[in-house]
Specification:
It is a single chain. This protein has 186 residues and is an alpha+beta fold. It has two domains: 47 residues; 136 residues, Sulfite Oxidase, Chain A, domain 2. The chain is built from four helices and ten strands, in the order αββαββαββαββββ. A five-stranded mixed β-sheet has the order 2-1-10-5-6. Strands 3, 4, 7, 8 and 9 form a five-stranded antiparallel β-sheet that branches. The longest helix has 46 residues. The protein is elongated, with a radius of gyration of 23 Å. The termini are far apart.
């Protein structure tokens, strides 16, 4: 009888492992599908040089906007000088033109009091998360689209655009975000 119990236990163990692998494979497949859909959407915004502006909080109904380059150009642009320090240690000075991120949010009536943070997402999946208080209280957080008098080049041209988040107060450019496609408020 013990031999029979051992075989039954062995079969159950294999069945459990098999079913676990099957469930895990299904989860991986669903996750991949959802991420592919998000990447496709982000790529469309990127190619059309648009930014998705999303806002959702427990107190408000979600609001989604598509912001074009011409929409951005309607806002007050500023010229800024910034020192960029890359992860490789390269240091370079740049002159950018763009808008305060705060001005973009205000243009779409997205009040600081309704949200806690902004998640700025790039077409390559990179994200920067900033407290909204930091965006609204300081004149340091910019969405730029011109560098040294020319539109920011995109990735295919070895550029950082068409849009890039620049934070002037940072010593090491650690929260800068190239290839911006979405600003999501939460």
């Amino acid at each position: 009888m013990t031999d029979k119990k051992a075989k039954t236990t062995f079969k159950r163990s294999h069945l459990i492992v098999f079913l676990s692998c099957l469930v895990l494979s299904a989860l991986i497949g669903v996750t991949y599908y959802l991420q592919t859909d998000q990447r496709t959407s982000a790529l469309a915004y990127y190619e059309d040089q648009q930014i998705s502006l999303r806002a959702a909080s427990p107190d408000t109904v979600g609001r989604d906007y598509v912001v074009s380059r011409s929409d951005l150009m309607q806002l007050q642009t500023q010229t800024i000088s910034a020192t960029r320090r890359t992860s490789t240690g390269e240091v370079s000075e740049h002159v950018y033109e763009g808008i305060l991120l705060r001005d973009l949010l205000k243009a779409y009536h997205l009040a600081e009091d309704d949200f806690e943070q902004a998640i700025i997402s790039a077409v390559d999946g990179y994200q920067t998360i900033l407290p909204l208080q930091r965006i609204y209280e300081q004149d340091h957080v910019f969405l730029v689209f011109i560098e040294n008098g020319l539109p920011l080049r995109d990735r295919s041209q070895k550029g950082d655009g068409p849009y890039m988040l620049v934070i002037l107060e940072e010593a090491f450019s650690q929260s800068w975000c190239k290839y911006v496609v979405e600003v999501s408020l939460q």
